[in-house]
Write a structure and sequence with these properties.
The chain is α/β, with parallel strands linked by helices. It has 2 domains: about 180 residues, Alpha/Beta hydrolase fold, catalytic domain (Rossmann fold, 3-Layer(aba) Sandwich); about 55 residues, no CATH class. It is built from 10 helices and 7 strands. It has a 7-stranded mixed β-sheet with strand order 1-3-2-4-5-6-7, with helices on both faces. α2 packs across α3 and α4 packs antiparallel against α5. The longest helix is centred in the middle third of the chain and has 18 residues. It is globular and about 65 Å long. The N and C termini lie far apart (about 40 Å).
């Protein structure tokens, strides 16, 4: 049995006697540092655990190309390691995918979920975008039929022409993980979430547009959506940390009290 990668987390204590555990899960290519300013503003709510997900920051890398369910299983093991019976999950983008998987598969361990600019649903694409994706996939299939002398240059060209910045900069196993993750569609998992869920989105989010938030709201029973004017994919960055923290405090004193 392979050893699980170590998870690095910064723990911020909450009020004396508080049993509430807020667990912050960052987006792709980020570390715990991206969510730390917002976490620091929630000291009155409970103990805060701001994680580096496996493969990022100071945490160990997955041994193979994980999907987000594998990340959820590792998070479950981490909760056991920390003695946390129930967690309030705050997931941004990629961390939102992991949060949805946790809510769907381990509902008894999830007290509430906050999804901030969460990924996990197939983006709506224009005809031109769909054609671009189809051509990229066709090139990949073609490359697999060619000898290495032709295959490798074609794949490098395809990567430069069609690969996202995240894909181009990622090293293995993160590159293979990203390929698996972006192909996921978590509609069925979202339908299974029963924990109180709060959707917090920037109106100008160009990576996980607001229509994705609206679809999550339809899928997750009883969920609430707030869209922040003038904010993008990182609504908690800079001064937005105070705005987001205020919304989370309201959620934790009402729907997730």
């Amino acid at each position: 049995m392979e050893a699980l990668p170590a998870i690095h987390a910064k723990m911020l204590p909450g009020p004396a006697g508080s049993k509430r555990a807020l667990v912050f899960l960052h987006g792709w290519g980020q570390t715990h540092a991206s969510m730390l300013p917002m976490a620091e503003l929630l000291g009155a709510v409970g103990t805060r655990h701001v994680l580096d997900l496996p493969g990022f920051g100071a945490s160990g890398a997955p041994p193979i190309a994980w999907d987000t369910f594998a990340y959820a299983k590792r998070l479950l093991a981490w909760l056991d390691e920390q003695g946390i019976e129930q967690a309030d999950l705050i997931g941004h983008s990629f961390g939102g995918r992991v949060s949805v998987q946790m809510g769907a598969h381990y509902p008894e361990r999830v007290r509430s979920i906050v999804l901030i600019g969460a990924a996990g649903l197939r983006p709506k694409r224009t005809l031109r975008q769909r054609a671009r994706v189809a051509f990229s996939r066709w090139l990949g299939k073609l490359a697999r039929m060619l000898p290495a002398s032709l295959r490798d240059p074609l794949l490098r060209w395809r990567e430069g022409r069609f690969g996202s910045p995240d894909f181009r900069t990622a090293q293995e196993p993160l590159r293979s993980i990203l390929s698996r993750v972006v192909a996921e569609d978590l509609r069925e998992e979202a339908r299974r979430v029963r924990a109180p869920t709060f959707l917090l989105w920037g109106k100008d989010d160009d990576q996980t547009p607001v229509d994705m938030a609206e679809r999550y709201k339809l899928l997750i029973a009883g969920s609430e959506l707030v869209v922040l004017e003038g904010q993008g994919h990182f609504p908690f960055a800079g001064g937005g940390a105070h705005q987001c923290a205020a919304q989370l405090k309201r959620f934790y004193t009402t729907a997730a009290s």
